[in-house]
Design goal:
Elements (H helix, E strand, L loop, with lengths): L3 E12 L2 E12 L3 E5 L6 H9 L6 E6 L2 E2 L5 H6 L2 E4 L11 H10 L4 H6 L2 H17 L15 H13 L5 E5 L7 H15 L3 E5 L3 H7 L2 E6 L2 E6 L1 H5 L2 H15 L27
Parallel strand pairs: 3-8, 3-9, 6-7, 7-8
Antiparallel strand pairs: 1-2, 1-4, 4-5, 9-10
Bound molecules: adenosine-5'-triphosphate and magnesium ion (MG).
């Protein structure tokens, strides 16, 4: 059943004079993917960091399963059921795929149990890791050193590591960054599978993926939400069009038919949105 798992209200983050995130509110529902798009520097990663506890908001509030988690540290938020992946790949390259996932699973074990090496907690961590390996489709890469697998598989591994902490809310910051078409399609299929059991925030520049996946779409510019709603509705929004295409193009309306958009670009949305950065 669909329900709101994470709720953010009035989130603001100031860095000196810059409001990187300015009064942003959103709800993440179980079994729904909420995509956040916008140009480089719009505040998407900062928003993700506010939800995960990597940054403390200047103002606003975040609740997870009805509990106020504002100001909690990332470890505590992770244990409460929120998992995230980072824009920059964040894996231990000299370790095997299995070791990476197993370490992530262990991070969910309470400190005391870790010291005591309780058999039950070891077993539970192994089971979580096993499930994550399978869910992410990496069984065949289990014993491979992480530094030797493909870029797409490394991104899959990162998601597997997130899954190993047993989250019910997932925040994914550009999981398709730097991927070719086949890798991107595999990742889209994985995210669709994960949607069945999770609420998901997806920050992504790949518009093909966004429109294939998103149930809800929020557009950010300069820290602010300029449009939010059903993807088709947002795509047709005059504000969204003019914010990117300029007055003339906006007056002409979104492109009709014509060339098929290339990967990472969607008709009616700007080419710059297809650009990946790793900032
Ligand atoms: N720790 C920080 N200190 C100061 N300014 C920051 C910090 N982190 C981000 N910013 C600024 O906040 C703004 C939003 O950055 P953010 O990384 O959230 O954008 P983004 O939408 O994720 O961009 P991209 O698509 O390039 O990843 C930018 O102007 C950035 O320079
Ligand atoms: Mg970012």
């Amino acid at each position: 059943m669909s329900e709101v798992l994470l709720c953010a209200r009035g989130l603001t983050k100031r860095f000196g004079g810059l409001a990187a995130v300015n009064d942003v509110s959103l709800d993440l529902w179980r079994q729904r993917i909420h995509a956040v798009i916008g140009p480089n520097g719009a505040g998407k990663s900062t928003l993700t960091n506010l939800l995960s506890g990597d940054l403390v908001p200047t103002a606003g509030k975040v609740t997870l399963d009805g509990r106020d988690i504002t100001g909690w540290n990332p470890e505590r938020i992770s244990r409460a059921g929120l998992g995230r992946s980072y824009q920059k790949t964040n894996i231990f390259l000299p370790f095997t795929v299995w070791e990476n996932i197993r370490l992530a699973a262990q991070s969910r074990t309470p400190q005391a149990a870790r010291w005591l090496r309780l058999a039950t907690s070891v077993k539970a961590a192994n089971e979580r890791a096993e499930r994550a390996l399978e869910l992410a489709g990496l069984q065949a890469r289990r014993g491979f050193v992480a530094g030797t697998i493909s870029h797409g598989e490394q991104r899959q591994l990162e998601i597997a590591m997130t899954l190993a902490t047993d989250p019910h809310v997932l925040l994914l910051d550009e999981p398709l960054a730097g991927m070719g078409t086949a890798e991107a399609e595999r990742m889209v299929a994985l995210l669709l599978r994960l949607k069945q059991e999770h609420a998901m925030l997806l920050v992504e520049h790949d518009m093909d993926a966004v429109f294939a996946l998103a149930d809800h779409l929020t557009v950010m510019v300069n820290g602010q939400v300029i449009a939010s709603g059903a993807p088709a509705q947002v795509r047709a929004d005059a504000n969204v069009q003019s914010a990117y295409l300029g007055e003339e193009d906006a007056a002409a309306g979104p492109p009709q038919g014509g060339d098929a958009p290339t990967r990472g670009r969607a008709a009616g949305l700007p080419a710059s949105w297809g650009a990946n950065s790793n900032g």
